[in-house]
């Protein structure tokens, strides 16, 4: 289940949601814009960046990483990419912050010594979703994040309760619809083998065949395809580095399909690297 994509959908819909997790927030959290950015030389992309609006006094840029799988070089990558981006755009911002969202502490990178000054400073906040408290007491936006971590046996009941809360609060129709849509997307990811009708019955709602629903189903298929491709590559070439794994996971549906065919001709990791370089050329 690609929980990071769910979180980024939430942040695209409501950028101010990030600041509900923080104690120190800017004066205008609702005005921030969620985006992904690219930095060249070396080239990489940062998926979760919260950009302050133009004209903000002393603007602060926020970098967000959603990490639901163990990554032994997460902090190397996060701080390296974030600081390089800040350096490239130092005329736009006066300061930066980093926010890392984990399902629990056990997913955190164990080697932290080289980064302790940053990790324990006011510039870095680590969020552990299982330590935020009872989901019933959390704001709905934060509760949606926690829903992604709930066990499948309990998730349907929790999801229905969140939908009931949104009705009781009498939010504007567009907000209610957004909540229904996000709950349905999360449950679709959790129960990828279920049909739309089965998800509807489980939640006691009606989901229109929307683009986001189709995207969720398609991404579930894509995730399975990428997992299979990685397994085939490992069996053929040996261990695949975390850097190459991330590049493979970022491939489009069509590219991963092409890789599944191309890998049959690979004889070394160099062949894989050459193929990936051709895709980004």
Overview in brief:
The protein is of the alpha/beta class and 281 residues long.
Write the layout of secondary structure elements.
Blueprint: H1 3-13, E1 33-39, E2 44-51, E3 60-66, H2 74-88, E4 95-102, H3 116-119, E5 124-128, H4 140-147, H5 155-168, H6 173-190, H7 196-203, H8 211-237, H9 242-249, H10 253-262, H11 269-280
Parallel strand pairs: 3-4, 4-5
Antiparallel strand pairs: 1-2, 2-3
Helix pairs in contact: 1-6, 4-5, 4-6, 5-6, 6-8, 8-10
Q: Can you put this structure into words, describing what you see?
A:
With 281 residues, this protein is of the alpha/beta class. The chain has helices at 3-13, 74-88, 116-119, 140-147, 155-168, 173-190, 196-203, 211-237, 242-249, 253-262, 269-280, and strands at residues 33-39, 44-51, 60-66, 95-102, 124-128. 20% of the residues are buried. The protein contains eleven helices and five strands. The radius of gyration is 20 Å and the shape is globular. Strands 1-2-3-4-5 form a five-stranded mixed β-sheet.
Tally of individual domains? 3
Give the helix tally.
Answer: 11
What top-tier CATH class of the largest domain fits best?
Alpha Beta
**Beta-strand level of the residues, as a percent range?**
5-15%
- The CATH architecture assignment of the largest domain turns out to be 3-Layer(aba) Sandwich
Class derived from helix and strand content = alpha/beta
Secondary-structure element string: HEEEHEHEHHHHHHHH
Largest sheet: 5 strands, mixed
User: So what's the overall shape?
Assistant: globular
What's the CATH topology label of the largest domain?
Answer: Trna Endonuclease, Chain: A, domain 1
Mean pLDDT score: 83
What's the count of strands? 5
Indicate the radius of gyration in whole angstroms.
Answer: 20 Å
């Amino acid at each position: 289940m690609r929980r990071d994509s769910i979180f980024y959908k939430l942040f695209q819909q409501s950028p101010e949601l990030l600041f509900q997790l923080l104690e120190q927030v800017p004066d205008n959290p609702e005005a921030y814009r969620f985006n992904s950015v690219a930095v060249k030389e070396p080239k990489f992309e940062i998926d979760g960046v919260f950009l302050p609006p133009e004209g903000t006094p002393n603007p602060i840029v926020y970098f967000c990483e959603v990490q639901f799988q163990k990554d032994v070089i997460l902090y190397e990558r996060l701080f390296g990419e974030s600081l390089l981006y800040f350096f490239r755009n130092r005329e736009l911002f006066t300061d930066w912050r980093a926010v890392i969202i984990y399902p629990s502490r056990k997913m955190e990178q164990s080697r932290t010594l080289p980064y302790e000054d940053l990790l324990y400073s006011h510039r870095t906040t680590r969020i552990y979703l299982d330590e935020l408290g009872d989901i019933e007491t959390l704001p709905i936006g934060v509760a949606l994040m926690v829903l992604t971590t709930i066990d499948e046996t309990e998730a349907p009941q929790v999801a229905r309760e969140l939908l009931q809360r949104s009705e009781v609060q009498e939010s504007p129709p567009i907000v209610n619809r957004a909540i229904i849509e996000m709950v349905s997307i999360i449950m679709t990811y959790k129960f990828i083998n279920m049909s739309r009708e089965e998800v509807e019955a489980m939640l006691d709602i009606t989901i229109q065949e929307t683009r986001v629903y189709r995207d969720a189903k398609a991404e579930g298929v894509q995730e399975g395809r990428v997992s299979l491709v990685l397994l085939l590559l490992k069996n053929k070439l040996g261990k695949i580095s975390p850097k190459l794994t991330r590049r493979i996971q970022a491939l489009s549906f069509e590219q991963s399909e092409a890789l599944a065919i191309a890998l049959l001709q690979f004889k070394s990791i160099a062949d894989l690297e050459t193929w990936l370089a051709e895709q980004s050329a």
